[in-house]
Amino acid sequence: MLDIRELSKRFGYGNGAVTALHEVNFTIGEGEFFTLLGPSGCGKTTLLRLIAGFSSPSGGALVLDGKDIARMPPNQRPVNTVFQNYALFPHMTVGQNVAFALEAQGRPRTEIAPAVDAMLKLVQLGHLKDRKSSELSGGQQQRVALARALVAKPRILLLDEPLSALDMKLRKDMQIELKRLQRETGLTFIFVTHDQEEALTMSDRIAVMSGGRVQQIATPRELYDRPANRFVAGFIGESNFLTVQSSGGSVILGGSRTHLPGATDGALTLMIRPEHVALSSHLPEAINVTAKVKQLVFFGTDTHVYLTLTDGTELVARIQNALHGNRTFAEGATINIALPTEALRIIADTEIEA
Ligand code: ATP
User: Which residue range or ranges hold the ABC transporter domain (predicted)?
Assistant: First the structure.
């Protein structure tokens, strides 16, 4: 539906020039909840502003429904944006705020009233229609902003960190709410965040960005299970990285040699998630080593177990307290641990500009 082709953006000229986006390519499907995720300065807002039309690209094309819209004025694009700071009209009621875009388009009153009512019902604010928007809580204001952006039925809704001003509890509720809204309306959402958990819980697909480049585009599960490189593995979820020597299809770690499918000769970086490290275990098809328990940290649902291997390598394991409640590991003890080969990933360890 939206084809982003070789899109680039430079700011400034000569020595002071900054390339905020380097020839980015990807396609967003109709009805997708698509997220741009990355650390501060990676270029996600720049990309969103190019799609909205608030800024024009230095090169490339933005093809929507077969037509290049990259140089079209923002008000002519079938795209709407919800910002972090809701930008509501404070002196207007909730109903008037939502009606505003339709009135500006000159739609008849008989059409506007039912559209506003339906939209307020969708965001569960029907009862507050006549309240001034300045007299609402942060979460309610954000819902009005959503209703106002959705009522004009854009082809694409752009959301620029729309939940970051909300407190933790409200933010979690709104994540579920937003996902529900997107499903019920069937609209295409492009959502910007630097919060990996928010991206994982809401998105159909995520583009992980750093240094003005897309590092990987995949579903949340694929990103977590098969990160393309060290940047993605480190940014999404918790990871252990192990540097090992490899020869003849086997790797050496903590004095033991283990066959690892796909291992090429030389130094390799392996990644394993903390929940896959098996404690007090010796398993077939795994790297089996001894480790010293350095520290235990209780997190309610699970416990993080910090380990040191004989060669000084540090690892963290995570065990679920409900499953292992009565199996305790004393700090200072030496235990056997197993790193199952099916959970180990060989990671491209290229330097990536943050
Ligand atoms: P954040 O999460 O902090 O908003 P971001 O990922 O959205 O970060 P961008 O705002 O897209 O990042 O910025 C990408 C790069 O482009 C940064 O290095 C930034 O300093 C630079 N940049 C953005 N806007 C301008 C501008 N108007 N002039 C010069 N440089 C800019």
Answer: 2-236
Residue 250 Cα to ligand 1 midpoint, Å, equals 44
In the predicted structure, residue 334 carries a pLDDT above the cut 90: yes
Distance of CA 99 to the CA centre of its chain: 32
Cα of 94 to ligand 1 centre, how many Å? 33
Does ligand 1 have an atom closer than 6 angstroms to the CB of 43? yes
Closest residue by Cα to residue 51 from 87, 81, 17: 81
Residue 132, C-beta contacts closer than 8 angstroms, at least 6 positions apart: 90, 91, 92, 93, 94
Q: DSSP assignment of 163-209, as one string?
A: TTTS-HHHHHHHHHHHHHHHHHH--EEEEEES-HHHHHHH-SEEEEE
**Rounded Cα–Cα distance for residues 28 and 152 (Å):** 21
Q: Closest ligand 1 atom to the C-alpha of 46?
A: 11
Checking if the pLDDT of 325 tops 90, the result is no
Could you tell me the pTM of the whole model?
A: 0.88
Cα 40 to ligand 1 centre (Å): 8
The predicted model gives 245-270 an average pLDDT of 89
Q: Whose CA is nearest to atom 2 of ligand 1?
A: 40
